[in-house]
Amino acid sequence: MSHQSGPRPVDPRSLRGPSPEEAVDAALTAVDGLADRPLAEHVAVFEQVHAALGRALADGADGAPEALGRA
Hints:
The protein has a domain at 18-61. Helices cover 51% and strands 0% of the residues. It is built from 3 helices and no strands. The chain has helices spanning 20-32, 42-60, 64-67. Helix 1 (20-32) packs antiparallel against helix 2 (42-60). The chain is elongated.
């Protein structure tokens, strides 16, 4: 007979999105393949990257002084 004690707890880290560093890496990856894409698509990619970098900057602002050693 198996014993079930209910649902397993969820790790809160799994509910968060990527870290600011991971978001920057993902955004810059979009630029890596830009040379192979039609020129007409470049502006849209740059706008998406700009927005993603802005979000990463905002998300990382709380921990920035510690990360830079100025806490």
